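Please fill in the sequence for the structure shown.

STRUCTURE ENCODING:
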């Protein structure tokens, strides 16, 4: 055992009142009831109790100060070997007067404490919930079966993102010793859409258009996450041109502002070679020489 003064952190001239005050403070901090399962703290509590058990006894303290006994109360020249003070002993023990640290600890909180199993919150349980792209944008409901076979109708927030987590309080594993149940932690996985994709609060769409629509211009119906809207393709639009549908994106969950939808034109030629189209293009190209790669020279 270490020097009892060092264990308690007091000087050799400390009064009985100082010793008691120091011990009460340490016992309140280190008691096993407060630090359940922490073996290092439990060992420290035993050291503190043993140190105070020696120093509170005036006769033993005097003998220790004179170098007649070891820190564990054994006679000088002997190792002590288990015959020393035990901080939880009910009788007098080696340190004399029946000191029980539990009595002081009880006085701190008022009345003798009865150790009761600690109530602990149950563990959280993690789930992965796959939702459709449009449900992730607009919000909705989806059933989820928990590990206890209970089925919940989970509310999907508007504009939920990939990897976002939803916490359902009290839907996790049962509590311990009457404690509250843990939570269910639901991680969202958004299924890819056939033609929409999301960047932040904006929606992007690649729109196939015919050569006629690109050259002559045309009003066409464009799909959005809330239904179709009409959009005019300007005459002479090139493939790759991007057009914006203002306010047709996803709603920001904090500001409630709506993003936009961006439509990128993709000119599609006929699936099979068309002789009439080829002749028309050859005739046009003969009269109109167009260099589209001057910027790459």
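FILLED IN BY: designer on duty
SEQUENCE:
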């Amino acid at each position: 055992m270490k020097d009892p003064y060092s264990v308690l952190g007091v000087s050799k001239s400390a009064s009985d009142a100082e010793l008691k005050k120091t011990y009460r403070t340490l016992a309140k901090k280190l008691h096993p009831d407060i630090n359940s399962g922490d073996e290092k703290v439990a060992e420290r509590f035993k050291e503190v109790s043993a140190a105070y058990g020696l120093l509170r006894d005036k006769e033993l303290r005097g003998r220790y100060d004179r170098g007649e006994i070891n820190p564990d109360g054994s006679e000088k020249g002997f190792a002590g070997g288990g015959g020393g003070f035990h901080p939880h002993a009910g009788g007098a023990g080696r340190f004399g007067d029946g000191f029980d640290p539990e009595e002081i600890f009880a006085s701190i909180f008022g009345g003798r404490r009865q150790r009761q199993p600690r109530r602990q919150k149950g563990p959280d349980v993690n789930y992965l919930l796959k939702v459709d792209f449009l449900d992730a944008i607009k919000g909705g409901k989806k059933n989820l079966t928990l590990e206890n076979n209970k089925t919940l109708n989970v509310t999907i927030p508007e504009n939920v993102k990939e990897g976002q987590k939803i916490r359902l309080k009290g839907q996790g594993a049962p509590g311990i010793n009457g404690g509250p149940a843990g939570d269910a932690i639901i991680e969202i996985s958004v299924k890819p859409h056939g033609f929409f994709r999301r960047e932040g609060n904006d929606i992007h769409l690649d729109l196939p258009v015919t050569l006629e629509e690109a050259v002559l211009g045309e009003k066409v119906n464009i799909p959005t996450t809330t239904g179709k809207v009409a959009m005019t393709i300007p005459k002479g639009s090139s493939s790759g041109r991007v057009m914006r549908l203002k306010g047709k994106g996803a709603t920001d969950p904090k500001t409630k502002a709506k993003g936009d939808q961006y439509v990128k034109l993709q000119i599609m030629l006929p699936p099979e070679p068309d002789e009439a189209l080829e002749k028309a293009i050859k005739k046009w190209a003969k009269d109109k020489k167009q260099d589209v790669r001057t910027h790459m020279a």
